[in-house]
Amino acid sequence: MRNVSGQADVVIVGGGIVGTSAAFFLRQRGVGVILLERFLVGQQASGTNFGNVRRQGRYLRQLPLANRSRAIWGRIPELTGADVEFMPVGHVRFLWADEQLAVVEKYQRDAAEYGLELHILGRNAIRERFPFIGPEAVAGSWSPHDGHANPRLVAPAFARAARRDGATIVENCEVLSIDRTGEDFTVATASGDYRAPIVLIAGGAWGGGFAAAMGEPVPLDVAGPQMGVTEPLPYFVHPVVGVSTKVPGEVAYLRQIPRGNIIFGGIARRNAALDEQRAKYDPAGVQAQFRQILRLVPALKHARLIRTWSGVEGYMADDLPVMGRSAKIPGLFYAFGFCGHGFQIGPGVGDVMAELIATGATTTPMEDFRIDRFGGSVPVRAHAP
Amino acid sequence: MADPRVIVVGAGPAGIRAAAALVEAGLVPTVIDEASRSGGQIYRRQPENFTRSYEQLYGTEARKARALHTCFDALRHRIDYRPETLAWAVKDGRLHVQSGMTAEALPYDALVLAPGATDRMMPIPGWTRPGCYSLGASQIALKAQACAIGEKVVFMGTGPLLYLVACQYMKAGNAPVAVLDTTPFHRQLRGLALMAARPGQLVKGARLIAALRAGGVRVVRGITPREVTGGEAGVTGVRYADAAGRTFHVECTAVGIGFHLRAESQLADLAGCVFAFDPAVRQWLPAIDAMGRSSVANVYLAGDGVRVLGADGAETSGKLAAQAVLADLGRPQPEDRTRRLLRDMERHVRFARGVARAFPWPHDKVAAIPDETLVCRCEAITAGELRAAVTALEAPEVNRAKAFSRVGMGRCQGRFCGLASQEIVAAACRLPVEKAGRLRGQAPVKPLPIAVTDGGSHA
Amino acid sequence: MQARFRRLAEKERRAVVLTVDGEAVRALEGDVLLTALMLSRGFARMSEFGDGPRAGFCMMGACQDCWVWTGAGERLRACSTSVAEGMDIRTHVPEGIWPIPA
């Protein structure tokens, strides 16, 4: 008989932004939580991503969730007691091609129905408002209430707050197996078993493996973003900057923090492996990335890159995460596979999952993210504008 | 079959000797070096329009410096020499280099890393003031620029370089005001038995100290640095405590600080080499076999960039690494020669262990620096902020403390604060330093211009 | 600000004149920028984080503490860049380079 290291109402597998915020919001609802994290909380996709608190461009029917999450972002200091450097400075997507204008205009109309305020700015308006933009840009789509935050701080902040409120957070604790035994799940780790009637799998790129083991396989690829940061420069790029394009090689994004560093990424993501603790940055892609960054902000031509990094992210075949209850096993819940854009919705997902677990239902529509949506055939990849 | 592509990074004593051995075996290695002239730091050459003699520049080491420079000059046209070139990353069998505004990826069959060392640093309140430099900088100012870092100089820290630089300043007519050593005299004697492996070097060291004394330079041992004092314009003095805890202030216009050396091991880290903690120097260093083979099949490590042995040890290790490369490429080397080099190497390692014992890193003093001290010069982050990353934000190890506090995230990538931050974090975590994690290297090794253009990849 | 370095030898070299923050500074051929700065202004740049002037630290291109600006907004590492006639060196961020919004 193995020793039982802990018992709670819910065991959460995975300590990223989703797992830690779910732990926090479950505690807010008085639910007992044990969170098991294989490395340190927020170390992979949650801690290494770009830090984009962006709603515009998201899958439309994810916007209610994104709006709910946006409201939480503004309250993180009050909720957790930590400053995660959230700055609601707005988010602008620039267009290189006139043809793309129709795409962003349609998105603006559609998103308005979900309450997302967007402004389409023409050639002159973008230059007046964002004097850093390069000469090739033809228009921009401006989302005034989006922004950015420091990804290194967010999941740890929720983890500390959850622990403060009574959750048990166990780091360096790899989950080996999950079994349903009678009324409870037994979650086995190298340091003992944990038991609970409810399990939430929030394992990011590792979520696919757990889902498959529970009899619910999903198409999930593992990849790492290619991130870089410049030396500190005068603070002149205030909003988060992105690109709306149909050309994959033009996808680039950047933001500047008031300390002066410009954080950027985009173009290619590289393969990553689940057995490595760290996804490796690939220097081979750097020049293509630099070219797109300079296209956006030509004033960076004298700047220097000082640091690069990557992380392990899980990408679903249809570019949408898996969120909600298991289609097969009562008491089992999933929230993983955020496809490189889970940061903004992360706290909202934690809140929704806590609501779903604690009350049996949620007011936020989650149908599209069901785990059984892949059925036999894999849907076409959805592309955000 | 095409000739094997061998790249040597660094044109100091280790890199030059490695390249020479490869050329001797009929290969044409690529030699990447950041400097505009070969020689490395210890045998750094002065600009071409300078006229001082080898004897003036290198003192007792003049013969060795001349031999090394002559060796390189003979190689110069038999290798693919790339000065003013930065090796900024390595991945998947390619070395990523940048020169001017051009970057390219060089594939290799074997990579010899000999990037050298930099000063090991203890952060001291006021150490960012103009006039405060590393001991290495103090020496380079003299050797490569014929300048003193100031008129009235204090040298502080510990290690052989402390006394060497002080003597060089004295001989150049700019005798230091004081030499302040954190190591007590009785502690220095503890390295003697091991340092006796190289009696000549030991005698040279003793002569340096005697010369300083004879020149009237005040040498104080067993001190604790308190502050580099000064104002907006820069350094005005040094405050320190003696072994009994009494505080003193020495007026000066410049300070040179250093606590022996640390290996520039970033490229080895990026190449994926396994590191091990060396308790003798309290540093994580890449693991190598006796020949300099790393844990990665075609990556070889030599010189002070893998472990600090000094210039002579670096030359030997460069020769050994080249022998390992050649043997692994199927060109076995004469065994007696390898045996001789390995024997030499044993003496260098033994001597270096003695030096490490005689001039220890004052880790307890480092861990105890006041909260207001800037630890990370690049990002201007204090020891207090770093400690808060552990105490308030619950970072359990150094990489997490870095992520929370930004210590080590700046332009120098933790070169000058990394070792100190490991001590500070370990103390705050109440862990032995080897249990508090190893700082991971991140490309680029040095800042890379965003505007670099692709110089292509040599297939 | 004041000169901090002291020339001890090699004084018979050709003179080179550059400007530092608009003022003419005389250096010698073979000097690196940091030497020229430390023989004239006594510092190299201002810290981005408000903690005062910086003057480099390692003299070997490792610590990255001596990056200065040119009038055109270029970045030069003062310890590893030789002086050249007519260089326009700035110890502060030059104005007009960065499109800072009003």
UniProtKB/TrEMBL annotation, chain A:
A Pfam family matched in the record: DAO
Annotated FAD dependent oxidoreductase domain residues: 9-356
Gene3D superfamilies in alphabetical order: D-Amino Acid Oxidase, subunit A, domain 2, FAD/NAD(P)-binding domain
InterPro entries: FAD-dep_OxRdtase (IPR006076), FAD/NAD-bd_sf (IPR036188)
Swiss-Prot/TrEMBL keywords: Oxidoreductase
Enzyme superclass (EC): oxidoreductase
TM segment ranges: none
EC annotation from Swiss-Prot or TrEMBL: 1.5.3.1
GO molecular function: sarcosine oxidase activity
The protein's name: Sarcosine oxidase subunit beta
Automatic annotation (TrEMBL), chain B:
Domain BFD-like [2Fe-2S]-binding: residue ranges: 374-426
InterPro entries reported in the protein's UniProt record: BFD-like_2Fe2S-bd_dom, BFD-like_2Fe2S-bd_dom_sf, FAD/NAD-bd_sf, FAD/NAD-binding_dom, Metab_Enz_Cyan_OpOx_G3PDH, Opine_Oxase_asu/HCN_bsu
Location of the FAD/NAD(P)-binding domain: 5-306
CDD domains, per database record: GlpA-like_Fer2_BFD-like
SUPFAM superfamilies per the UniProt record, alphabetical: FAD/NAD(P)-binding domain
TM helices/strands, residue ranges: none
UniProt entry keywords in alphabetical sequence: Oxidoreductase
Signal sequence range: none
PANTHER family hit by this protein: ANAEROBIC GLYCEROL-3-PHOSPHATE DEHYDROGENASE SUBUNIT B (PTHR42949:SF3)
Protein's recorded name: NADPH-dependent 2,4-dienoyl-CoA reductase/sulfur reductase-like enzyme
Annotated source species: Pseudochelatococcus lubricantis
Lineage summary: Bacteria, Pseudomonadati, Pseudomonadota, Alphaproteobacteria, Hyphomicrobiales
From TrEMBL, chain C:
Pfam entry (one): Fer2_4
InterPro entries: 2Fe-2S-bd_N, 2Fe-2S_ferredoxin-like_sf
SUPFAM superfamilies: 2Fe-2S ferredoxin-like
Keywords: Oxidoreductase
Origin superkingdom: Bacteria
UniProt name for this protein: Molibdopterin-dependent oxidoreductase YjgC
Species of origin: Pseudochelatococcus lubricantis
